């Protein structure tokens, strides 16, 4: 009875909460609040099953409300209160399944059959495409053979006619005025014609009377200008095209006359055809052999457009893309000219007056359309202002559960947001930003002080003393030595070596590890237990030795031994070390696999990989049939992929009794792991630990970085000899600390003992072991990846560490002998402001990629999935809403064909969608593109590619060669995945519209519109944002943009910005955006304020009636 009474009280509280919310909505939208009316509307909403029913009931009662407001009230009511059952009772079934009724989208029944059907359909499409390509090649070969037969018949007929002509003229041969036989003249002409025909037949060009797009032809240069040259095609009479100066060679050409001459024989490729005009390219063709260096496929739409150019006049044609969205083909037919800036009304009036008066010729005006009908060229749609708003229609599976009905609470990463640790983290973030700005300002000042003309001292016959030397030194600015700080130069100059030198052999080093003494017991424990939890301190040897022990015990005869690592660097370095101990080359018996890099072979039996790579292998082979043992190393770090692997492998061990699962951890979470995995046994490896003295500060430290440096010097000058380990949050802090320590030590003079500074850019608590450490300094902070729903992005935030991490850091001081740990926070902060354990990653980052992968595995019931620490239902709902907007889920919440292809790419869902919708390898852009930063980055990559991936070029242009090489590796793997699905990789050329549309298809969530007052406002959250000063669009300020990320400094700045057309949002994301009703005032216009023009003679609000004097 007590429980029934409690449930009744809770229901009443929910009902009162809904009435209060409805009351506040009435006040904010209609300007009045009435509790009785709110209760009446609430009951009416509970009795309605659909929004339309609710709207009709309101209208019957005389309440005329806007559609969006009715929908808002309906979602608020149904999100908290269950609908009334037909019997009038509030059902008993709702009690037992209340969670499912509230989040129905997360309780969809698992269905692997649909996933298999999608995979079969995708494979069938790829096979049909491959057959079609082979059939097309066969038709081309048959056509070539028919052409050869016709050509042979043609030549035979010419010989017969020539023989008849020769016989008829043999009787009366006469010579011309040059004394040459006319018959010999005709024979030479015939031979020349035959040679031309032979050359055309060899190149496969006797198929049409018109040049074909993307084909290579021989030609002759007829005219040369500074900006290019005209080439007449040899195989077509009267066909001539322009080769622009940028299309002559792969390197920069200052003047076309330096590369081509009149009457020069060249090979050209037809790049584009508009009416009678042709654009040709020489840079894509080998001028010696005529081979196409950049072969590109041509779609049937392009062919039909070329054969019937007038077909586009009836309107744009459409084709259906991967997402089911109609894509207009008009982009292919329009010239690749960039849209011009919109003209204001005064500018148009001025232009018309100048042209009408005869002062300016219409052809001299920059807006004149030379290719069109001679009228002033204007950007299409410039006159029409398109009003775009969010599409608030919810799909069936998300009714009452989406962002319009449930407020997403921010992720809580601070236990006490008002505590001393939170204030110190905020202050340090501000100091990091300030130091960065000072450093950038110093670099700009130094570069501005460099003379612009470095050749003048060498040309001057009598330069000033030292002037040539200065110029010689400044020529090296921009090379690698420029960025090396002073402390690092000094350390490297002393031939600093990294790593600990050991005189022991590899075998003796292995035997010195603590795990060696327990080798037999460990192998027996793995043999007796299907799942085993191994606990051991860092440095005990569990990562490198367990896999080798199991290989020696014969587990590799049944399959591979796989070991996951939470980081890329750890997987690579551990695999390299194990390969040395195993006695093989890396990539043979021992290998590793990380994202965009696979260093394994057919003989690999021990495979180290990141946890994300094992998750992708399960996506392909759900039984992991290639593996006999799977080891989840560093499981205590609880990355998002590790948590998903826990649930998947827990199901897998029930299906595969022969599979062995080992979970290793360096912390004392053994009981939690054991309880999760069927109360399995725990194998403990005793470590080499000594007592550690813990020291706290008496008062909170505001600047923990400065306090850390003071503590380092204090230990170095007053404590006994021993290594010091300082934990910082990132590379910027580490570099600043090293530089400060170097300068302070230099200021103390030569009498102070030397302090060797060693920066370690890694997550030390889990991945590395360093012996000889007696002192640990723990500021109590780390950087965590946290999802920000406002920005829609994951960001690194400085946060306090957990109590478990603090214990692990302190344990570092007791590996070699008794040590000390200096905690730069109070004991009260340790107990009250630090959580016991770190918040798992799955509860604090975006779950879009994880949800997509689980859907691709057939896991739809996310509520019932056995997470060790389940994420919040709101986070899962938000992820599914994003996937639905991208087209990865259908109206029932099930995976689509596009979604299955997106899951195959190791990218975030927006990037996968952008790549699949584009299917293009964009080429030949120029630096600093006016369309935006994405194309500017593309221009940098293409310029690097044109320089044969040169390292010195990167130094000269202040570009990181490592980032470009990484982009190159990523591109190779993405091309491999696209080739698997037979997706065309076709160049978009200079059609920047296609490229920008592809970006819009993936990042439409990040659309922003120019604000009339200042900056921009995002369409989703309506928050004020600004273009970053480093952006290519900073001076242009287009009306509509899409950004890649938001950076919070003094303002919310948009980074990697690209200008877009607002029509694309509705075209490419119809589930997310819609065109506003022209008969109603949009939400954006309702929020705008009417501001009068500036009047220096009156006050700003003097126009208001309330401000006027009587």
TrEMBL record:
InterPro entries, A to Z: DEAD-box_helicase_OB_fold, DEAD/DEAH_box_helicase_dom, DHX8/Prp22_DEXHc, DHX8_GH2-like, DNA/RNA_helicase_DEAH_CS, HA2_WH, Helicase-assoc_dom, Helicase_ATP-bd
Location of the region described as Disordered in the Swiss-Prot/TrEMBL record: 83-108, 126-207, 298-319
Single GO term (MF): RNA helicase activity
The keyword Nucleotide-binding is assigned to this record: yes
Domain Helicase ATP-binding, residue spans: 523-686
Pfam family, one: S1
GO biological process, one term: spliceosomal complex disassembly
Entries under PROSITE patterns matching the protein: DEAH_ATP_HELICASE, HELICASE_ATP_BIND_1, HELICASE_CTER, S1
CDD domains: DEXHc_DHX8 (cd17971), GH2-like_DHX8 (cd21691), S1_DHX8_helicase (cd05684), SF2_C_RHA (cd18791)
Domain called Helicase C-terminal: residue spans: 691-858
Protein name per its UniProtKB record: RNA helicase
């Amino acid at each position: 009875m007590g429980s029934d009474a409690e449930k009744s009280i809770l229901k009443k509280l929910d009902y009162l909460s809904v009435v209060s919310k409805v009351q506040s909505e009435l006040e904010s939208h209609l300007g009045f609040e009435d509790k009785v009316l709110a209760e009446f509307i609430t009951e009416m909403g509970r009795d309605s099953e659909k929004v339309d029913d609710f709207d009709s009931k309101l209208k019957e009662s005389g309440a005329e409300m806007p559609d969006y407001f009715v929908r808002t009230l309906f979602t608020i009511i149904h999100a908290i209160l269950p609908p009334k059952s037909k019997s009038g009772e509030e059902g008993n079934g709702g009690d037992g399944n209340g969670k499912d009724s509230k989040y129905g989208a997360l309780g969809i029944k698992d269905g692997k059959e649909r996933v298999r059907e999608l995979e079969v359909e995708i494979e069938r499409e790829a096979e049909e495409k491959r057959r079609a390509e082979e059939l097309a090649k066969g038709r081309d070969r048959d056509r070539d053979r028919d052409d050869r037969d016709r050509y042979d018949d043609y030549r035979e007929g010419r010989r017969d006619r020539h023989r008849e002509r020769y016989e008829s003229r043999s009787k009366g041969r006469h010579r011309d005025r040059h004394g040459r036989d006319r018959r010999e003249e005709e024979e030479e002409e015939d031979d020349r014609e035959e040679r031309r025909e032979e050359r055309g037949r060899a190149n496969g060009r006797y198929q049409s009377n018109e040049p074909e797009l993307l084909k290579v032809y021989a030609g002759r240069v007829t005219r040369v200008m500074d900006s290019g040259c005209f080439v007449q095609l040899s195989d077509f009479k009267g066909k001539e095209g322009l080769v622009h100066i940028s299309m002559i060679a792969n390197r920069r050409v200052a003047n076309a006359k330096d590369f081509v001459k009149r009457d020069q024989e060249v090979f050209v490729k037809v790049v584009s055809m508009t009416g009678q005009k042709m654009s040709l390219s020489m840079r894509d063709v080998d001028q010696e052999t005529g081979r196409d260096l950049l072969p590109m496929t041509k779609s049937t739409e392009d062919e039909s457009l070329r054969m019937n150019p007038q077909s586009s006049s009836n309107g744009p044609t459409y084709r259906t893309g991967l997402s089911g969205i109609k894509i207009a083909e008009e982009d292919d037919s329009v010239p690749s000219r960039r849209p011009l800036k919109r003209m204001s009304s005064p500018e148009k009036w001025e232009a018309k007056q100048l042209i009408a008066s005869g002062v300016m010729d219409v052809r001299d005006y920059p807006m004149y359309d030379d290719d069109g009908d001679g009228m002033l060229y204007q950007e299409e749609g410039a006159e029409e202002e398109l009003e775009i708003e969010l599409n608030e229609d919810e799909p069936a599976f998300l009714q009452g559960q989406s962002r319009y009905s449930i407020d997403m609470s921010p992720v809580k990463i601070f236990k006490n947001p008002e505590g001393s640790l939170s204030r110190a983290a905020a202050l340090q973030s501000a100091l990091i930003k300030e130091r960065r700005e000072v450093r950038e300002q110093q670099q700009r000042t130094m570069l501005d002080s460099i003379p612009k003309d470095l050749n003048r001292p060498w040309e001057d016959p009598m330069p000033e003393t030292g002037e040539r030397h200065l110029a010689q030194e400044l020529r090296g600015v921009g090379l690698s030595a420029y960025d090396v700080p002073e402390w690092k130069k000094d350390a490297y100059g002393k031939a600093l070596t990294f790593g600990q030198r050991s005189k022991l052999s590899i075998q003796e080093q292995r035997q010195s590890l603590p795990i060696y003494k327990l080798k037999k017991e460990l192998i027996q424990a793995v043999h007796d237990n299907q799942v085993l939890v191994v606990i051991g301190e860092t440095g005990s040897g569990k990562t490198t030795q367990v896999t080798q022990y199991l290989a020696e015990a014969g587990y590799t005869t049944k399959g591979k031994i796989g070991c996951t690592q939470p980081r890329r660097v750890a997987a690579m370095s551990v695999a390299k070390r194990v390969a040395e101990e195993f006695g093989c080359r890396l990539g043979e018996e021992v290998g590793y696999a990380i994202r965009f890099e696979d260093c394994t072979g057919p003989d690999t039996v021990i495979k180290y990989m990141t946890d994300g790579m094992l998750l992708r292998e399960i996506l392909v082979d759900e039984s992991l049939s290639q593996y006999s043992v799977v080891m989840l190393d560093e499981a205590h770090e609880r990355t998002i992929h590790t948590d998903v692997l826990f649930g998947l492998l827990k199901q897998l061990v029930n299906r595969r009794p022969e599979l062995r699962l080992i979970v290793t951890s360096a912390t004392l979470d053994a009981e939690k792991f054991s309880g999760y995995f069927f109360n399995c046994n725990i194998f403990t490896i005793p470590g080499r630990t000594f007592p550690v003295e813990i020291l706290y500060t008496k008062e909170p430290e505001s600047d923990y970085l400065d306090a850390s440096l003071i503590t380092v010097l204090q230990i170095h000058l007053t404590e006994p000899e021993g290594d010091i380990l300082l934990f910082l949050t990132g590379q910027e802090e580490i570099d600043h600390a090293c530089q400060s320590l170097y300068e302070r030590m230099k200021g103390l003079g030569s009498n102070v003992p030397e302090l060797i500074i060693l920066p370690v850019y890694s997550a030390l608590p889990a991945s590395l072991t360093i012996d000889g450490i007696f002192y640990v300094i723990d500021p109590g902070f780390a950087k965590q990846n946290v999802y920000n729903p406002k920005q829609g992005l994951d960001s690194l935030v400085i946060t306090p560490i957990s109590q478990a991490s603090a214990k692990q850091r302190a344990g570092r001081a007791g590996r070699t002998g008794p040590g000390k740990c200096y905690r730069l926070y109070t004991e009260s902060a340790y107990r009250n402001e630090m959580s016991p354990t770190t918040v798992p990653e799955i509860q604090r980052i975006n779950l879009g990629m994880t949800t997509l992968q689980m859907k691709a595995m057939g896991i739809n019931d996310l509520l019932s999935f056995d997470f060790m620490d389940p994420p919040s239902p709101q986070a899962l709902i938000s992820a599914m809403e994003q996937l639905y907007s991208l087209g990865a889920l259908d109206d029932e919440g099930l995976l689509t064909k596009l979604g299955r292809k997106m899951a195959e790419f190791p990218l975030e869902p927006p990037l996968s969608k952008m790549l699949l919708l584009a299917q293009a390898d964009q080429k030949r852009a120029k630096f600093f593109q006016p369309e935006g930063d994405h194309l500017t980055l593309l221009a940098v990559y293409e310029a690097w590619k044109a320089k044969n991936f040169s390292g010195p070029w990167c130094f000269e242009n202040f570009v990181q060669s490592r980032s470009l090489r990484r982009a190159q590796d990523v591109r190779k793997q993405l091309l491999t995945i696209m080739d698997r699905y037979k997706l065309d990789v076709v160049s978009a050329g200079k059609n920047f519209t296609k490229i920008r549309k592809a970006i819009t298809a993936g990042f439409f969530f990040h659309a922003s519109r120019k604000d009339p007052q200042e900056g921009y406002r995002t369409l989703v959250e309506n928050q004020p944002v600004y273009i970053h000063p480093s952006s290519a669009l900073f001076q242009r300020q287009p009306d509509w943009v899409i950004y890649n990320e938001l950076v919070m400094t003094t303002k919310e700045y948009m980074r990697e910005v690209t200008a877009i057309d607002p029509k694309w949002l509705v075209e490419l994301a119809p589930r997310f955006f819609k065109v506003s009703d022209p008969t109603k005032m949009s939400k954006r216009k309702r929020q705008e304020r009417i501001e009068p023009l500036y009047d220096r003679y009156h006050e700003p609000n003097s126009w208001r009636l309330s401000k006027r004097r009587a």
